[in-house]
Write a structure and sequence with these properties.
Number of helices: 12
Structural class: mainly alpha
Distance between the termini: 32 Å
Order of helices and strands: HHHHHHHHHHHH
Shape: elongated
Radius of gyration: 18 Å
Strand content: under 5%
Number of strands: 0
Length: 207
């Protein structure tokens, strides 16, 4: 870790619990993220923070970096998910879901062991039980996995059944905003025995 990064981390530490945190945290964390190992340092330091603005800023930076095809940051995303404490912060959840989508769009391999099942499944189930916006983000991730034919690779049969049941309950809400995302999962919802083949790889970012 460079002296520059250590000095910025010291500034961030002083911000914990202060009123200035909301205004300064993202700028300082962006400065660290611009260094070669900056994202790794931030995830190690702040993945389990209980301070929403820090979790929000970290997830935002991961979502930003996830758009690049040059680097597979899936391990960092999953490390954040595994240790995440701000699980009720809508912006943090949305940013994390966006990061996952963008990694899939960037074409990084999500074959095991790159994708730890125990981490992603409970996170998505949690998100499916949150606000409409977060629900939509979780459905979009599942739709992306489905289009790539990865659902049965990422989740086991019991998990797929639970996800299908949860998605069917969401479809019963008759929410147009959610139904727009559920359209591409029609094949999965109708298939009670397992995951169907993906529909193709035409991709467009939702976030």
């Amino acid at each position: 870790m460079t002296d520059r990064v250590e000095k910025i981390l010291e500034k961030l530490q002083k911000l914990e619990g202060s009123r200035e945190a909301d205004e300064q945290a993202l700028d300082l964390m962006e400065e660290i993220a611009s260094t070669p190992e900056g994202l790794d340092v931030l995830v190690e330091r702040y993945a389990n923070t209980s301070i929403p603005i820090f979790a929000r800023s970290l997830s935002f930076l991961l979502a930003q970096a996830a758009s690049s095809p040059a680097r597979n940051i899936a391990p960092l995303i999953f490390h954040l998910i595994e240790r995440l404490r701000c699980r009720e912060d809508e912006s943090t959840l949305l940013n994390t879901l966006t990061a996952i989508q963008r990694q899939l769009i960037a074409g990084h391999s999500w074959q095991p062991p790159a994708l730890p099942r125990p981490v992603l499944y409970p996170f998505l189930m949690h998100c499916l039980g949150q606000s409409v916006l977060v629900k939509r983000g979780a459905v979009a991730v599942l739709s992306r996995l489905h289009s790539k034919g990865l659902l049965a690779t990422v989740f086991d049969s019991t998990q797929l059944m639970s996800l299908r049941r949860e998605l069917k309950q969401i479809s019963e809400l008759k929410n147009e905003y959610l139904n727009d995302e559920l359209v591409d999962l029609a094949g999965f919802l109708e298939n009670e025995r397992g995951e169907t083949a993906g529909r193709g790889n035409g991709e467009q970012a939702n976030s």
